[in-house]
Amino acid sequence: MKHFKESITADLLAERALFHLKYSRGKDLRAATTFDKMSCFSHAVRDMAVDGFIATQRKYLDNDVRRVNYLSMEYLIGKMLANNVVALGIVETSKEALKKLDITVEEILELDVEAGLGNGGLGRLAACYLDSLATMELPAYGYGIRYEHGIFRQEFDNGWQCERPDEWLANGYPWELIRPEYTLPVCVYGRVKKNFIPGRGSVDVWEDWQMFEAVPYDVPIIGYGVNTVNMLRLWKSQPAEGFRLDVFNQGDYVRSVEEKNWAENVTKVLYPSDYTYAGKELRLIQEYFLASCSVRDIIRRYKKTHNDFSKFAEKNVVQLNDTHPTLAIVELMRVLHDEEAMPWDKAWDITVNTFCYTNHTLLAEALEKWTVDLLQRVLPRHMQIIYEINHRFLQKLEINFPGDGDLMRAVSLIEEGPHQQVRMANLCVVGSSKVNGVSALHSELLRTKTMPEFDKVYPGKFCNVTNGITHRRWLLKSNPELTGLISDKIGEEWKKDLSLIKTFEDFAKTKAIQKRFMEIKRDNKVELCKVIKELTGEHVSPDSMFDVQIKRLHMYKRQLLKVMHIIYLYQKIKANPKVKIQASTFIFAAKAAPAYLIAKSVIKLINSMADVINHDVDVAGRLKVVFLPDYNVSLAEKIIPAADISEQISTAGLEASGTGNMKLSLNGALTVGTLDGANVEIAQHVGDENIFIFGHRTEELEELRTKGYNPWAYMDKSKDLQNVLEAIRDNIFDPTQPDLFKDIYNDITEHGDFYFYLADFEPYIKCFKKVDKLYETPSKWAEKAILNVARMGWFSSDRSIQNYCDDIWHLERTPIEMV
C-alpha cells in the first residue's frame, strides 16, 4: 500500500515551512526568531498529515464504518512535534529540512507547546489509546475540552505548592483546526413544564434555559507507519450573544460582558475547585458541556448517512473514560426521547447498547456523586430523566429480586440521606452494555468488593482491560539510545509490534550488552542532572542510584512512605556519619489538588527535608532529595529513561492500575512496589525475581481493617519508626516551626493511619536492603533491568486496544488507501 508519508522530502518540508514563515508569520528567514521557526515548521508537519486526515475521514464516511467515540475530560497528549515527526517516519528528513531554516531539531523542540489538557494517568492513558487506535487503523474519534488554562502551573514558594495559570494557548497552538461551522448551542438552567403535542399527548418540555455555545477544534492524531490520521475534537465554550453593546452604552460596563465571562469560564480550567458551591456548579456544567456537545456531534455525523436511528448503536460505540462524561447517557436519552419523539423503551435500548464505561477507582470518595438539588437547578430535564431511569430499573429489580431491599438500596441511582445524591458510577453501570476495570486486580475488586450487587444484577457485564502505554512515545521518542541498542540486536519490526521486543531477552546475560545498557542509562542520568540543576539549582551525581516517584500526589499513593524511608536513612547517618550507605538521589515530581491540604503539606515536608539533607556536611552527598516542579509529559520523558528505581508503593487494593509503572519498567527501571494495580501483572510478566515486592497484600489489609487496625502497635515494636514519626511531629527540618507537620503525624497515628503507612514501614525498609545490595553488582542489576525491558511487550496500549476491540467495541480494521 502506498503511504502518503513516502512523498515527504526534506525539500518539500523546508518549502512548506518557509511558506508558513512568510504567509502565516509574515517574516522572511533573516527576521525569523526561534519561535517563528518552530511555529512554521509545526504547521508544515501538520500540512504533511492533511492528506491522510482527509482520506481517513472520507473512508469512514463512505464505508459507514462502526466507530468508537472516546469521551474523556483529560488528554495528556504532551508535545506533539517530535511525536508526529516519529509517527511520520521523517526524523532524518526533518533534520535535513531544518538546515535550510538554519536551526536544529533540538532548538525548536524546546519551544514546542505542551497542551494543558490533563492532570495525570487518566489523561495520559487517553492519549496512549488515541495513538494506538490510529496506528492500528481503527475508526475512532476522541472528544474532550479545550481548556484555556489546563490544570495549573506548579511553582514552589518557600517549599509550598503555588498554583499559577498554565498559559499554554498564549501564542496559539499549531496543531489544531478550528471548525466554526459545527458550533453547537448548549443549554443549562431553566424549568420543565407539561405541553400537549398532537399525536404524543402530554410531554415534558424544557424551557427558559440559558444558552451558550461550543466551538470544536480538531487535532489530527497521526498513526505510526500507516495512512490513518484520526481526530481529537476539543470543545471551547463561548457566549451565544457575547458583548452587549446596548448595556455598554448605558454605562454598565461590567454587565455588558457578564454573559461572555460566564460562558468562557466553562472551559477556563480543568477541574475547577469544588470547594465552594459555585465551583461544584461550574464543574457540573463543564461535564455536561462535554457530554452534550459530543453526543450531538456523534448524532450529526450519523445522520449524514442514515434516516433513522435503527443502526445507531450498530455504527457507534461511546466509551466513557471514568464517570466525568456520565451525563452523555442522559443526554442521548433526552435527544432520542424528547427531540426525536422515540418511545422510551426503544431509546433506552439504543442508549445501553451504545455506551461502555471504564472505571478507574475503588476509592469511595472518588466515585462521583452530584446532589439532586444541584442537578435539578442546572439540568432540570436531565434530573427528571435520571429519576425515570431509576424508577424503571428498580421496578425490574423488584420483579427479579422480590423483597431484597438491601440490593435495591445498593444499586439505586439515588443515594438517600440528608441531601439526596445521584451516584454517577451506578448510572454508568445501568446505562452501559459493558463495564471494565483497568487491571486484573482492580477489575476483580470492582466486581467483588466495590459493586458486587451490580455483578449479581448484571452477570457478565463486568470485564477487564489492563491499561497499556504507547512505546512510540515512551521508548522510541524519549529514549533513542536504548531504542537504537534494541534495534541493533533484534531488528526494526518491534517498533510496530512491541510483543517482538521479547527477543531482546536473549542478550540479558551478554556482558557487552549489559555494559552498553548501563552506559545508556548513565547518559540519560547525565541529561536529567542538567534538568535538575536548571529547575532546582541542585547538583546531583549521575553515579548515584536514581530513585524515582512521579505521579499525582495523593495519600494512597504514599509519597509519604518514601519520605519516611529517607528520614530513616538520614537519621542513620546522623547517628554514625561514617556508616556505609548507598549513594542515592530521590526524585519526586507531583502536583497536589489545590484543595487537598494534607497532600500540599507533604510537598512542603519533602522540600523542607531536601533543604536540610542536601546541605548537611555529615551526609556528604550520599543522599540527595529533589522535587521537580510542574510535572508534565515533557518532564516525564526526561525522568523515566534515567530512573534506576520505580516507586509504585500505593496501599494495596487502592491503585486501579498505574501506567507510570509500565513506562519505567520499559525503560529499564526496577520496580519497588506493593501487589497493587498493574504491579501484579508486571510481576507475572517480568518474573518475581526481577521486581521488588513488599508490604501487606489486599486481603491482609482487609483482615486488619476487620479485626481493628492499631497503628500504635507498630510504633511500639519499632524504635526506627518511632524516631521517624517524631522527626515529622517535631519538624526537625525547621525547629522554628515545630507544629508545621502535626497534621501529617496525626493522620497516620491518632486518626487511624487509613493507608497503612506504619504497617508497611518495616517491610519497606527490609526491601530496600535487597535493592541496595543488588545495586552494588552492576552486571546483575543490568541483567534484571534488561529483562524488564524485554518482558514489557504485553503492556503495550496496542494490546489494550485489541482487547477492547475483541471484547467490547468489535471494531474492524480500516486501512486507508491513498489515491
TrEMBL record:
Keyword Transport recorded: no
Any single Pfam family the record assigns to this protein: Phosphorylase
Catalytic activity of the protein: [(1->4)-alpha-D-glucosyl](n) + phosphate = [(1->4)-alpha-D-glucosyl](n-1) + alpha-D-glucose 1-phosphate
Domain of life, source organism: Bacteria
GO terms (BP aspect): glycogen catabolic process
Residues annotated with N6-(pyridoxal phosphate)lysine modification: K663
Enzyme Commission number: 2.4.1.1
Record-level Gene Ontology MF annotations: glycogen phosphorylase activity; pyridoxal phosphate binding
Cofactor: pyridoxal 5'-phosphate
Top-level EC class: transferase
Keywords: Carbohydrate metabolism, Glycogen metabolism, Glycosyltransferase, Phosphoprotein, Pyridoxal phosphate, Transferase
Keyword Glycosyltransferase assigned: yes
Record's function text: Allosteric enzyme that catalyzes the rate-limiting step in glycogen catabolism, the phosphorolytic cleavage of glycogen to produce glucose-1-phosphate, and plays a central role in maintaining cellular and organismal glucose homeostasis.
Family: Belongs to the glycogen phosphorylase family.
Name recorded for this polypeptide: Alpha-1,4 glucan phosphorylase
Native species: Pontiella sulfatireligans
Organism lineage: Bacteria, Pseudomonadati, Kiritimatiellota, Kiritimatiellia, Kiritimatiellales
Gene name, Swiss-Prot/TrEMBL: malP_2
